[in-house]
Amino acid sequence: LNKTKFFSSLDWFLVDGAYKADRDALQPVVDALAAAGWDSASGRYEARGAYGLRIGFLAPVGMEDFFLGSSAGFIVGPTLDTTIDIADAVAGVAKLQAEERTQFYRFLIETAKRIRLSDNIAFTLGSGAGLSHAAIKAKVKCNGAGCNVDGSSENLSDSWTGFTWEASPRISFPLGQRTGGSLGLRYAGFPKTKETADFSEFKWNPV
Fold first, then answer.
1. Contacting residues for 194 by C-beta, under 8 A, at least 6 apart
2. In Å, how far are 10, 11, 39, 191 from 55, measured between CA atoms?
3. What is the pTM of this model?
């Protein structure tokens, strides 16, 4: 039936292009340390995706099976952990680690067009556009005799706000007389930020 629907959703987003500038810069940094005279230098990173929670509503408007509404969501991630190990016979060894954590608040105006496949199953094409506030935090630390100060650390942070959007095809089905479920994909765009003194450019359009 065409009536107002209240919904909540759990989302998982892939890493995709998040932290690409940092990942691309790792090997040149390692090569530069080796060229600077360290006996050995190596680096590695681990990038992980994000998960989110969203609540909202969709109300029928105009044409049949077309809905308009809004939602609010919170996304934790993506994250990036980078480690560089260097060693020298005179200076000793050092381990440089950087932990970067990102999170987003999103507020969307959403639309959905439902195409009935049967009495109980429907294909729904959803879309949304709105604003997102992003925050990034990083902890950089150095351990070992090769550090200027063994055990030193620094905390960095930044935030920005910008346009966000998404497209979300999904299959919807009933779970009872008053509730239903859906499975699908989201292709989303988040606000990007340019390189600053503390952080590389951040651009993320995940599935």
1. 201
2. 9, 11, 54, 20
3. 0.85
